[in-house]
Amino acid sequence: MIDIRRRLLLLSRQEAERHYNPQTQLCLIPRETAWYAITLLESGSSSDLRLANTILSGLTVEDGTHSPCTLLAIYHRFHRVLNKSAVENILKNLHANLLISAAVRYTDGNVNHPVAAFVNLICSGELLRQPVYTAMGKQNLQAFHRLITSRRHQRHQQAEMAEYNSPTYTALTLWFLALAAERAQDAEARELAQALEQGLWINLGMHWHEPSQQWAGPFSRAYAEDSYGGYSALHCTAACALNRTLFFEPRLARQFNHPSALIQNALPAILQFHVPQQAQALFFHKPWPYQFRITTYCEAYHENGVRPLDQGMVACFDDEIYPGGWSDLTTYLTAEYCLATASRPYVNAGQSDGFTLRWRRAAEVKRLADFRSLYTRMVFNESTVGRDNLCHVIGATVARDYLYEEGRCFTCQHENTAVVCYAAKRAGHKNFSALRLDLIFTFQAPFDEFFLDGLPVNRFPYDGRRVEKIVIADFNIYLALLPLSASMPVGFSGLTRIRQDADHLILSLYNYQGPAVSFERERMSLIHNGFACVVETRSRFAHTRDFLQYIDSAHLEEQEVESGRRSIRFTVGADTMDFQLNPFNEQILAQRWNGEEEPLFHFDIRADRAAGADYFPSALYLKPTHTQ
């Protein structure tokens, strides 16, 4: 076993043993307990083998998705060393979960759970000689494939899964597809699983930013360590599958109290992945700059919430629905940085990164201080990254493993330039005392230079009124941020606050701070915030003063037209970006660069064609054409 797989098993075991309860024989929940059992079975110790058999003899799983797939992997790899009781209990669990898996259907908001259910139906159905379930799983996987590749409307054809590019959940989807690609006996099911897995690897190869050792966004679902950068399930899975050393720092998972992010490493450590050569080329040799735009489709979705029940509260959905529909995902990578946006939010966007920027801060990334990330959240009241928060929009506590998004984010991007617009979530309309947009920087090391409206700033915190331009020079990049006008209640004159909180630097653009206020829901969509940004490098501007002079000419023009629609024009140098949207129905009305619309029907890659065909896939999830 190669060192990376041993490292993953060690990370999993160390974290699992912090949470394992010998009395209940559980490690948090049954799924994590099964992952812990893998580490025991891999150790080679007779005492560990006895404990693993004891755990697996008494374990009950009932989710129909992740857990039975884990038991399948355990059975196939270890059945010769498992005792009779453990084997019988595993098979009993697999049989009981077939009916649960059969009830799972794919919708546009979640991929990893239904794919796991389909794989369980296929592989457990075969193992247990239940062909009806195998046929159902195969049909469901085929229907999923047809939907994500064939959905076609007037102006769009789907190119990407709805649960796109998640540093956590895309990794899980890879695990289950790889399991089916190895273990399914049905040739069509096996080939389709492998084709989907390989399509995901090509997708991930496009998103990997080798100079910073980070995943480029945007991210449909991101936990705190995913947003921070430097550690994720995808980091670990890719290192394992590629048999290559990638930088990742596991302590981030503990810092953000996300034990599953460590314990889960046991499963990919024992799987066989199928990375195509094209993906290898995309991971490590793609030409710079490299931009791709892809379409995705998100289902209509409700906001999370609570309602009173007896003497307490019960979780429920808010009545109002987000419209869903088409979104453009844009990712631009250079040798120094990667900038990425999603034009419209993913479902309720509770843990989405619709805007991400990452750049390297050293010639080689060996520690967290050697890169920096920037992402955004709109939040009510006192919610803060890196803490457990009472989330105002949903009326419940959200742990520090992610900062809940309480705004709706809409973007327009052309290469190194973007406009990011936020509207407050309408479910938060009652009794709030603060509303702000946070631009969240990782802060393992100071910036090289930081300017507010042309003046250098060397110390934080900073409190002031409206700031027109923020300029950052850091290693080989320059970043300019121009805040949009933030709509505010009468009597609040605005606030810009910059503060360090642990290893984050938070730039807060306030819409309101003061006594609790309430508005009608419809008015919340008129509460807007945001910024424009442009990223450049020292290869174009050798000196900071040159970039500052260039940015002096940048300016924003904003208009609100009828029905609350917004029109934003961002001019920098000789270029102009126009962005128009309707925050009420969440429709983007125009995206123009230098007066020209930039429509996206399906999939578009822009790079040096001389680099070769490997860097220009025409689609992500092609149908398998022959039997392996």
Task: Describe the model.
It is a single chain. The protein has 628 residues and is α+β, with helices and mostly antiparallel strands. It has two domains: 3-150 and 158-283, Glycosyltransferase (Alpha/alpha barrel); 287-597. Helices cover 31% and strands 30% of the residues. It contains 17 helices and 30 strands. The strands form seven sheets. Strands 19-22-23-16-11-10-9-8-5-30 form a ten-stranded antiparallel β-sheet, with no helix packed on it. Helix 6 packs antiparallel against helix 7 (131-150) and helix 8 runs antiparallel to helix 9. The longest helix has 21 residues, at 187-207. It is globular and about 75 Å long. The mean pLDDT is 96.
Q: What is the strand and helix layout of this fold?
A:
Layout: H1 3-19, E1 20-21, E2 26-27, H2 30-42, H3 46-58, H4 66-78, H5 84-102, H6 112-127, H7 131-150, H8 169-183, H9 187-207, E3 208-209, E4 214-215, H10 224-228, H11 233-242, H12 251-255, H13 260-263, H14 266-269, H15 277-285, E5 290-298, E6 301-309, E7 312-322, E8 325-333, E9 337-342, E10 355-360, E11 371-380, E12 389-391, E13 396-398, E14 407-414, E15 417-424, E16 432-442, E17 449-452, E18 455-456, E19 462-464, E20 470-474, E21 477-483, E22 495-501, E23 504-517, H16 521-524, E24 528-537, H17 544-552, E25 555-560, E26 566-572, E27 575-582, E28 587-593, E29 596-597, E30 603-606
Antiparallel strand pairs: 1-2, 3-4, 5-8, 5-30, 6-7, 8-9, 9-10, 10-11, 11-16, 12-13, 14-15, 15-24, 16-23, 17-18, 17-20, 19-22, 20-21, 21-24, 22-23, 25-26, 26-27, 27-28, 28-29
Helix pairs in contact: 1-2, 2-3, 2-4, 3-5, 4-5, 4-6, 4-8, 5-6, 6-7, 6-8, 7-9, 8-9, 9-15
